[in-house]
Structure formats: structure tokens, C-alpha cells
Write a structure and sequence with these properties.
By secondary structure, this protein is an alpha/beta fold. Helices cover 40% and strands 21% of the residues.
């Protein structure tokens, strides 16, 4: 047993509770025997009283003590040094928050089937390129909402992304500043890279995004701004789900709503955080190429196997010993005692 150690030595104090329990049971048994002896002598007790004798009582008490001792040892988690092995340790080297514009203009069908659906498909494809990276999702329009906190659970992220649409936020428009601030607050304390992938197709509506970008830079966050749309401006055409007829979205005055991105603003936001601005247009949104060109160099995703000594755990044997002792203690207490013949 050379090199025997205990992983949770703090549980040793439970031994005092086990000792107290055994002493209490022994005292109760002795007191019961003394009280019975005041009324019936030992010879008559053998004839009239049905129960375990002193030998069985002592054996049962010993089994109880053995069960409690083994259980305490199991909690201490005894270990032997074991062997050195290579263990594939999963660790995260970066956190990426996707800030996705879900305003009504993202329903425009100049990118099939529409801008929002195309962006979602590209985001899902991007996940395959991000190794050892946790992801989160912020949906924004006139307001921003964190719909998926930063997580390593890709399935949960996919579920949140699937449900992101114009109803995810309570106000229309494009509020870049609020989106950036919400994304920055989503990052937990960590030493890895912190990246915001900002995908939008609209102009900002007085939310001070440049100031928000400076705050992000102070927090060590870099922004990759993807302009999905036209800087010259274009009408928003969508298909009516009821009639199937394509129509142009108009404002209260009946004039067509023009959607345009502010490329200069997005460039300023990205440069303020030492990030990058990517004018993607509407023909294609290849986020995988953006990952290779811009996000990849920010992430050190080389996960090397960790070499460490894996101990040999002995607590299963202690648990087995406790279970065996408990079984025989219960069996002994329930076993029928042969009645002595008169």
C-alpha cells in the first residue's frame, strides 16, 4: 500500500459520528439487557424471551461498525499512484458571441430564401470550423436580447438560433450600440480570446455604437463586423405567407422602406477593437471563409493531449465492503432464533 493517499481527507471527521453511533447502540443494548435482568433471571430469559443472544448482538454491532468504517473510507476516496497516461482534455480557448440582426429588413428575399435564413445557415456551417470555442447568441433590432448565453453546448445554441426572428425583440429598427453592449456583458471572465461576430444589414439609429465599440476594446473584446446588404440601399421585398405574392415593405406614408448598411460605421466599430469589417453584400455570406481569414488567427485552437498520472481508485472496494457488512447485519437482525426447549 505504498503511496496510498486520500483525495477528500476532510471527511475523516465523520469517523467521530460513526464511533458515537456504535457506542450509542452498544449502550442501548446493554441498558436493555440490564433492565430485563431486573425482572427475569438469565435462565428464564432463555426460555421466555425470543431474540438474539449476546453473541449475535455483539456480532451485529461489529458488522454495523465495519459498515460505517468502510463507508467513511469510501468518502475519503483512497487512491494509489497508478500510471501515467495521455488524457484528451477538452478546453476552450475562445468565446464567440454572434450578434445577429433580426429586424424585418432581414426578411428581404434578395438572398434566397431570405437574408435571415441565409445568415442562420451560414452560422451553423461556421460552427464546424470553430474548435475549442464556446458560442453565445444576441438577437437585436431596435433592442438587443441575449437569447443564448455563452455555452459549449452546440445543441442548445442551435435551438436558440433556430428560434431567433423579428419577434425575439420588442422593437424594430437597428440598434448596433445596444447589441455590442449586450454581447460584451455576455462574456464570462476568461483568459481566452473574446470575439463578437456582428451581422447586420441596416443603419444604426442613434445608439452610439462607436462609444460601445470603445467600451468593448477596453474589455478586450474584438468585433468582426459583417455588412450583409447594400451600402447604396435597396427596397425590402418579402413574400406574403398567406397569398404567396411578393410585396414591398412600405412605411406609414406608403413609401418603400430602403435598407442600407453604413459601411463606414461598421468599419469604425471593427477598427476600434482591432477587429475587421467584411462587406458581404447580398449574393453570398460565407462565414466559413470569414472564420479562416479573420477569426481563426485570433484563436489558438491547438489542443494538445494532457499527460498526467491517473490514480487507481480504491473507493469502490470500500463501498462493496460497506454493502456486504450491511447485508449481513440486516440478515442477522432478521434471522429467526430457535426457541429453546423447556
Amino acid at each position: 500500500m505504498t503511496g496510498l493517499t486520500f483525495a477528500h481527507l476532510g471527511w475523516i471527521h465523520l469517523a467521530w459520528a460513526a464511533i458515537a453511533m456504535v457506542v450509542a447502540v452498544a449502550w442501548l443494548q446493554a441498558r436493555g439487557g440490564r433492565r430485563l435482568g431486573r425482572f427475569i433471571d438469565s435462565i428464564m430469559q432463555k426460555r421466555l424471551v425470543h431474540g438474539p443472544g449476546r453473541g449475535r448482538q455483539r456480532l451485529g454491532l461489529a458488522l454495523m461498525a465495519l459498515c460505517l468504517a468502510a463507508a467513511t473510507v469510501a468518502l475519503l476516496r483512497p487512491q494509489l499512484p497508478g500510471q501515467i497516461r495521455q488524457v484528451a482534455a477538452r478546453h476552450y480557448n475562445a468565446d464567440v458571441v454572434v450578434a445577429l440582426d433580426v429586424s424585418n429588413s432581414m426578411l428581404a428575399e434578395d438572398a434566397a430564401p431570405n437574408r435571415l435564413a441565409r445568415a442562420k445557415a451560414e452560422i451553423l456551417a461556421m460552427l464546424d470550423k470553430l474548435d475549442h470555442v464556446r458560442v453565445g447568441l444576441v438577437a437585436f433590432a431596435g433592442k438587443a436580447a441575449l437569447v443564448c448565453p455563452i455555452t459549449g453546448d452546440e445543441g442548445f445554441f442551435r435551438l436558440a438560433l433556430d428560434g431567433a426572428d423579428p419577434t425575439s425583440v420588442s422593437r424594430g429598427g437597428t440598434n448596433l450600440g445596444d447589441a455590442i453592449r449586450t454581447a460584451v456583458r455576455a462574456f464570462p471572465p476568461s483568459d481566452g480570446a473574446k470575439i463578437v461576430l456582428l451581422i447586420t444589414d441596416g443603419e444604426d439609429h442613434d445608439s452610439y455604437p462607436r462609444e460601445a465599440a470603445k467600451e468593448a476594446a477596453k474589455a478586450g473584446v474584438r468585433i468582426i463586423a459583417v455588412g450583409f446588404g447594400s451600402e447604396q440601399g435597396s427596397e425590402i421585398r418579402i413574400t406574403d405567407p398567406v397569398t404567396g405574392i411578393q410585396r414591398t415593405i412600405t412605411d406609414k406614408s406608403g413609401n418603400p422602406v430602403i435598407s442600407r448598411i453604413d459601411g463606414a460605421l461598421l468599419k469604425d466599430i471593427a477598427l476600434a477593437t482591432k477587429g475587421a469589417y467584411v462587406p458581404a453584400g447580398v449574393d453570398a455570406l460565407d462565414l466559413r471563409a470569414i472564420v479562416d481569414a479573420h477569426i481563426g488567427p485570433m484563436i489558438d485552437a491547438d489542443a494538445q493531449p494532457t499527460v498526467k498520472r491517473v490514480p487507481v481508485e480504491l473507493y469502490p472496494w470500500a463501498i462493496a465492503g460497506a454493502a456486504v457488512a450491511l447485508f449481513f447485519a440486516v440478515w442477522l437482525a432478521g434471522a429467526r432464533v430457535r426457541r429453546a426447549r423447556p
